[in-house]
Amino acid sequence: MTDTDQTGSTSPLAGLGRMIAVSSGKGGVGKSTLTANLALALAGQGLRVGVVDADLYGPSIPGMLGIPGDQPPAMSPAKKVIPAQAHGVKVISMAMLSGDDKPAILRGPMVTKYLQMFITQVDWGTLDVLLLDLPPGTGDIQLTLAQAFPLSGALVVSTPQDVSLKIVRRGLRMLEQVNVPILGVVENMSGFTCPSCGEVTHIFHQGGGQKIADSLNVPFLGSIPLDPAVVDGGDAGRPLILDAPDSPAAQAYRAVAAAIGGKEQDGPGLAVPFDWQVAQGSGQPAGAAAIEGGDPERPVALEYDTSGLHIRWQDGGEQVIDPRDLRLACQCAACRDEMSGQRLLDPASVALDIQPTRIWSVGNYAIGVAFSDGHSSGIYTFPALRAMKQVEAEDV
Q1: Which of 124, 218, 267, 272 sits between 20 and 30 A of 1, alpha carbons compared?
Q2: Across 165-175, average pLDDT
Q3: 31 annotated among ligand-binding-site residues
Q4: Per the annotation, does 66 bind a ligand?
Q5: Which is more confident, 121 or 141?
Q6: Is there a binding annotation on residue 294?
């Protein structure tokens, strides 16, 4: 990620480091507890860590870190929200903006507004890692984050029960569809360690996390045992990793932190986020070189001239897409029936000389395109672009 675009303006994401989502398909798997302890474990590695409590409807991170919920955050001179700090970690949460008796009753557009604010309108300073504690499921919040921000990866949390593992599979597939790299699977509540004798009892089965990771070909980052001290520490605002650093669970948290602390998305790609004003010639994303054995559905360079949109892919493939073909391929609800897939756009209504006026990044998995006819609601995924009818670059 670059700090400035080609016009010299500073990106609102500059300095935020790697953005890592902590996700789960279902609730009650200990995702927020993992996030709180993982944040402290990463800070213990010497990293500068921030946490966005993205569970707007059920925020719990401030309580787990001992941050008072009745003190609204202050504003910086630059009119940005100053995040709370606890144990060396910076935090923003809906719990800081509303009391326990004031639930967040939000429709989709407001959810998007708050998420944008939590990331771009907070005075984070310079971070190495920004953890995003997601709510369970595959709804508005997950899609908003995947579309609006270039996530470096996601950590998926499960428990060993079969029902949890089935839902984890759906969540993993959703992340794959929006091109968020899966850093790994963590199996939480994998066994209960008796505080008296130390014997481990696998009350929720055993090995399910490893099995689901193997079946989906993603890393398995470890199992975290149940420990009564986890609950006590969370209620007291002192995560287990502080109060019982030598416990098996604390050691497991540190192992997960060590496993993800240096992981990046493999190989070069476009510098994201970007907002390329094609008509003005500003903000074109910086490109990268192709590599042998690269990803055929990851672009490394975008250019535009009178022949069309030029795309170079990580595997070395190159294509040129005619702007009118690009406009006709739009899959938005105004151009295609969402149920039948039937085209609603009349090709005769699209001018032969139509041009893209603006191209911007959509998360890690797509681009948005605005055209000279005023249409701007289409999202083009990388696989869809690669599959389009194209004029090979050497034939242009």
Answers
A1: 218
A2: 77
A3: yes
A4: no
A5: 121
A6: no
